[in-house]
Structures are given as structure tokens and as C-alpha cells.
Design goal:
single chain, Rieske Iron-sulfur Protein, Naphthalene 1,2-dioxygenase Alpha Subunit, Chain A, domain 1, binds FE2/S2 (inorganic) cluster, binds fe (ii) ion, eight-stranded antiparallel β-sheet, 9 helices, alpha+beta, globular
Length: about 425
């Protein structure tokens, strides 16, 4: 349970909020590359309650500036790309990618005041199949060089999905190892691009042993299950500062996982960025795109949503095909779970148990980071040089491990003994 003050600190991300300052200290993904190809049209972006427009100038350079024209507030995302920038349709003012006002054509030559107009503008970069922005103060850090962002393009694919609730609910669902034995439990089914059969294993041990370790980039999460055949099934997930996770989405022995970023649109909506990654093998992009098209609507939201009660099928549930009766697309189950917690979950009313240890530790890490920033320190895990931008303590996998070994021991064996960040 959190106090109201703690819940507000973690969930409020608008300009000037302590939680917003934390999230703004890191690069945040705002759009997948395919939404802004060379020559692409301006795209409205809402992030952390700020309305912006992403555009390419006539030289195809990317810019991210305030969406509302500083003259009298008209929406610049409808504007014309020309003459070195983006031109407002109302009276023709124009802005470059740095937010400089470069034209006020309606003003007489001797009355122009472009130099007095300051319009918000944020740096943007492309990496890992998405466009990132930096909304913090000072020199931007580096974008983290995780494999799911820097592997050859054939080994990765990024998507963006919109969810109707606060970002922290998305993040918490993705770090929580216990719920998979319930929410995602299903009978073994056809192998598909998004269900390689591993989800049937969650139901074989519904009380996994959980261990966590603090790392240089966040928290490593270990969930160990005893299978019916006696094998010990370990899943290793990670929380990455400030809003990232890496759930394992494959069966043991299949090298691959997802990076995820949970980015606030505002305090009651967020985007889930999914970075599919396979180590060595190409990802099946056509298969993944088809699964997405079957499950995500043109509005970027799940087809299963509150308006249609997540298309719950009670017969499917009664047959025990799935525990939840919401089909075999796992992210839809999570969306149901987190959206129905409320637009902003009231954590003053919850009752955490011992299996919520990961939730507790991730909140502690976030609250500690916010408090540290309020005292004038840097946000944790910021990367400022190439030699910092590597993660020798990062491991994301699932595996069968010997009797007597636990998750942390397994990771030490695989990675070698490593110095861990101070807890
Ligand atoms: S409102 Fe944009 S130019 Fe007037
Ligand atoms: Fe889940």
C-alpha cells in the first residue's frame, strides 16, 4: 500500500511534477519509425500531458515542437512543411526544428518580432525502430544500448499500443511474475507467433519462487517454477530505469524476449512500446504484424477493450481453454487487468502480499530516484559516455536450471561474478 502522496509522486508526470522530472531525465520513445518516413506528414504527439508535433523539415530532419502555435494557439500538426520548417495555417508563422520562429509573413517588415518568440522544441533521435525524444534539462544522456535496440534490423521489430490508464499500471503488470500463472494460464494450444506454448507452463506451478537483485540499470527479477516433470523452470525479467521492462516471450532455449517501454501520454493514458528481439534468428516480421493487425485496432488500442467488456467468452473460460476467457493474445489479458484498476489505481486501498515483492521493490526504486532528484542528484542509471553504455549485468532469458540452484545463482553462473549497484 502507498500513501496518497507516494501514489501521486509515482503517477503524476505533467510538466514540473517530481515524477515527470524523473521520466524527463531519460530519452522516451514517441513513435515507431514507420509513422514518420522521409517526406512523412507532421504527426501530433502527446507525451506526459504535453502536446507536441513531430515533423520532418524540407531537408527531412526530424523536429519535435509545441503543437499549438505561439501566435494564437492553432494546431501546427495541420501545418505546411515548407521554406525550412513547419508553417501554421492560420496566419503563416513558420518554425524550424529547433523551435525558432523563422517567418511572420503577415507582419510588416519593420514590425516582425520572430526573435522574441520562444517555442518549445525537444531533441529527437532514431534508434531501435522508434523515434525518441529528450525532454529533460541540460545535455541529453545516451540512449541505452540494449540488444533489443541496437541488434541488426532483421532481429528486431517495434510496435506502439495505447492503453487507457496510468503508465505505472502498465509497468507493474510487466514486472509482476506471479500473475502469469493466473491471468495468462491457458491450455496448450497451437503454436503462433505470439504463443510458442510457454504460457501453458505458467499453470504447472502457480506459486513461483521470486528473487530480485538490484543492477546497474534497474532490478533483475527471477521467477522459479517446479514443472510437473520435475524440471526447474526459471524466467529472468528486468526492470530498466525509469519505465522499461524485458519480459521473456519465448520457450526455454529460444533466444528472444521483448523490450517494453511504458510512456505516459497523460496521467490517465499511456503507450506501451514493444521491441521484439531475437538473438541470432531473424524475427518473423510478417507473422508479428499479422498478430498485431488481428488484435490492435486502427486507433492503436486493443480490439478487446472496456467498451466491449474485453470480448470475454465465458464458454472459453468454462472449457478452461484460457483462465480469463479473453483469447490467446496475452497482451490483451494485461490490458484488461490494468485498465480495470481504474484510470489511476488508488494504491492507498490495495493489500500487497509476499508475492508482490517485485512491485514493492520497483516502487521503492522509483520513489528513491524521485527523492534523490529532489535533493539535487542525477536520476539513476543515466549514461553519459560510450564506455558506460553497456550492461554486463543484463540477462533476460528462460531456462531449466539444476536442482539446488536459484535464480540469482543461475545469473551469476551465466554472467560471471559482477559488481552490483548499491541497493
Ligand atoms: S495562430 Fe499560428 S500563425 Fe496565427
Ligand atoms: Fe502479463
Amino acid at each position: 500500500m502507498l500513501s496518497k502522496k507516494q501514489n501521486d509522486l509515482l503517477t503524476q508526470t505533467g510538466p514540473g511534477t517530481p515524477g515527470g522530472n524523473l521520466l524527463r531525465s531519460y530519452w522516451q520513445p514517441i513513435a515507431t519509425d514507420d509513422k514518420m518516413p522521409p517526406g512523412g506528414d507532421p504527426l501530433p504527439i502527446r507525451i506526459m500531458s504535453e502536446d507536441l508535433v513531430l515533423f520532418r523539415d524540407p531537408d527531412d530532419r526530424l523536429g519535435l515542437i509545441g503543437r499549438h502555435c505561439p501566435h494564437r494557439g492553432t494546431d501546427l500538426s495541420y501545418g505546411r512543411v515548407e521554406d525550412g520548417g513547419l508553417r501554421c495555417l492560420y496566419h503563416g508563422w513558420a518554425f524550424d526544428i529547433e523551435g525558432n520562429c523563422i517567418d511572420q509573413p503577415a507582419e510588416p517588415e519593420d514590425k516582425k518580432f520572430c526573435h522574441k518568440v520562444r517555442h518549445p522544441a525537444y531533441p529527437v533521435r532514431q534508434q531501435g525502430g522508434v523515434i525518441w525524444c529528450y525532454m529533460g534539462v541540460g545535455e541529453p544522456p545516451l540512449i541505452p544500448d540494449f540488444q533489443f535496440l541496437s541488434a541488426p534490423e532483421e532481429n528486431r521489430l517495434a510496435f506502439r499500443v495505447i492503453q487507457q490508464c496510468n503508465w505505472l499500471q502498465g509497468l507493474e503488470s510487466s514486472t509482476d511474475p506471479s500473475h502469469t500463472s493466473y491471468l495468462h494460464r491457458m491450455a496448450k494450444g497451437e503454436k503462433t507467433a505470439r504463443d510458442s506454448g510457454f504460457s501453458a507452463m505458467f499453470g504447472e506451478d502457480t506459486r513461483p519462487r521470486l528473487d530480485i537483485e538490484h543492477t546497474s540499470f534497474g532490478v533483475r527479477i527471477h521467477a522459479l517454477r517446479k514443472m510437473k516433470d520435475g524440471r526447474n523452470y526459471l524466467r529472468v525479467n528486468n526492470y530498466i530505469y525509469p519505465c522499461g521492462t524485458t519480459p521473456v516471450t519465448e520457450s526455454p532455449g529460444v533466444p528472444g524476449y521483448q523490450g517494453r517501454w511504458y510512456v505516459p501520454i497523460d496521467d490517465e493514458h499511456h503507450c506501451r512500446f514493444e521491441f521484439f528481439y531475437k538473438n541470432g534468428d531473424p524475427v518473423d516480421k510478417d507473422g508479428l504484424r499479422k498478430v498485431r493487425a488481428d488484435n490492435i485496432g486502427p486507433d492503436g488500442r486493443h480490439i478487446r477493450r472496456a467498451d466491449n467488456r474485453y470480448l470475454q467468452d465465458r464458454d472459453e473460460q468454462r472449457r478452461d481453454d484460457t483462465f480469463c476467457g479473453m483469447g490467446r493474445y496475452i497482451p490483451a489479458h494485461d490490458t484488461y487487468a490494468i485498465e480495470t484498476q481504474g484510470a489511476i489505481q488508488d494504491r492507498t486501498k490495495e493489500h500487497l502480499g509476499s508475492t508482490d515483492i517485485v512491485i514493492i521493490e520497483v516502487r521503492k526504486a522509483l520513489l528513491g530516484a524521485i527523492e534523490s532528484m529532489q535533493q539535487g542528484n542525477d536520476a539513476p542509471g543515466l549514461l553519459h559516455s560510450m564506455d558506460q553504455n553497456q550492461f554486463p549485468d543484463f540477462l533476460c532469458t528462460s531456462d531449466y536450471i539444476p536442482d539446488g540452484e536459484d535464480g540469482p545463482a543461475y545469473c551469476r553462473r551465466i554472467l560471471g561474478e559482477l559488481p552490483h549497484a548499491a541497493e
